[in-house]
Amino acid sequence: MITSNNQPFEYAIIGAGPGGLQLASCLERRGANYVVLEAGPQAGSFFGEYPRHGQLISINKINTGCDDYETNLRWDWNSLLGSKPLSFRSYSERFFPSRQSMVKYLADFARAENLNIQFGCKTNSIAKDGDGFVLTSETGLKLRARVVVVATGLSRPNTPDFPGVELGTHYVDFEIDPAKYKNKRVLIVGKGNSAFETADAMIEYASSIHLCSPHPTKLAWATHYVGNVRAVNNNFLDTYQLKSQNVILDAVIQSLEPEAGGVRANIVYTHAMEERRSVWYDQVLLCTGFRMDRSIFDSSCLPEVTTCGRLPMQTCEWESTNVPDLFFVGTLMQMRDYKKTMSGFIHGFRHNALALDSILAAKYEGKPWTGVPLESSTETIADTILDRLNRSAAIFLQPGYLCDLIVQQPDGMLHLVEGVPKDYVRSSSFFDSEMLITISLEYGDFSKIADPFNIDREPFEDKAHLAAYLHPILRIFERGELIQEKHLLEDLENDYSGPLWRERVLEFVSQHLFVT
Fold this sequence. Notes:
Elements: E1 7-14, H1 18-29, E2 34-37, H2 69-72, H3 99-112, E3 117-118, E4 123-129, E5 132-137, E6 142-150, E7 156-157, E8 169-170, E9 185-189, H4 193-202, E10 208-213, H5 220-223, H6 235-241, E11 247-259, E12 262-269, E13 276-281, E14 283-286, E15 290-291, E16 326-328, H7 346-365, E17 372-374, H8 378-391, H9 393-397, E18 402-408, E19 414-421, H10 422-427, E20 436-442, E21 471-478, E22 481-487, H11 499-512
Parallel strand pairs: 1-2, 1-6, 2-3, 6-16, 8-14, 9-10, 9-14, 10-11
Antiparallel strand pairs: 4-5, 5-6, 7-15, 11-12, 12-13, 17-19, 18-19, 18-20, 20-21, 21-22
């Protein structure tokens, strides 16, 4: 706890959401000098309000037919990774649980891990001071930290800037009782999950609902990105395509104007040779997402952001590109793999946070990444590779972003290192190893596939590199030079325990490693 003004810490984490809790758990386990500053009265306060309609879209699959803890994390998108397993399945049996279940889970996780959290401590300002930072709370309390890790998420409403936008009501403020929209014409600005969640809730009440944004709707089952529109929210699509008075517009809103107790929207279609249209609505709702709040940073440490202004720019270590010793954890990590893998969500960033902890320990405490020693035999190495392909949640849920490594140390010993960002590998000492094997699961190129339910494939070993679906890739490097990239055939159930895969992995290992 904070016991005095100007108390020094090695690490200060801003925010006790799932990202902040996950990193704090890692720091607590290794006895680091850290504190978590949380504005609210308990952990995970975001989930006390959002999603507005109460249902999470992170799956909670309890009945998997498997009793292995790590394997089951592949279908558990809510649990954090603590010193002792605390499974979310103990808090809800629903496949799509309620946000209230998440609030209870995160509070219990913080207590179970005995985390050093200062609740009711809203950070008002962060300033660079010599080799560290000075953080000042809303009450005037100051503390010092060598490293600051921002875990505040996307906490500020992202509001469009077209004229008349003030006539709309943002997701954080509008009335969620669907009966309030009975027989109304409603324009929802946005086509993400919050927009579809909102539209789905009022289908039985509103006379007509229009969803509008410049770009076409992207569906998660087509892109493999869970942040795109999920099937659980897309009943609205039927009501559009089956002519039930609801509409999806690909258009730019030029302006909103008050008219006759409602709002007139002036739009320009993006796929109709810039045709213009003016449409009247009873109400306009803004489901346009959130952005990072930079107001707590003074000019000495204001982090650069992406061109859209929503996310902080980051290095491969999740460090600010322009403010040394300022890092990000949780959903803010998604800048590195934006809309490609799952760093914006618990089941992705929980694994990123473990990697960040190892990066911080190496960078500031001189502690090497933790590795598991391996016996230098072909059988052992092949079995290790197959075990990771079959069980690892990190490489399964962060495909092509996180990988496992088999590293040959200077003394010739081999070590398994789990859950390392691929981009980081290339800039780290791992890449200088005499021998390095990366183990990953990756999708192929499915960008030109029109129908994800109608894909021709060639189930032959010499065509494995053409697979569009998730499949294993092994790469071997010698002192940073790629020696071979081996693609293995995909499997319908991601089960690589059969004799074909074992034979191919043994061949791969035997070709390149001088082991017995």
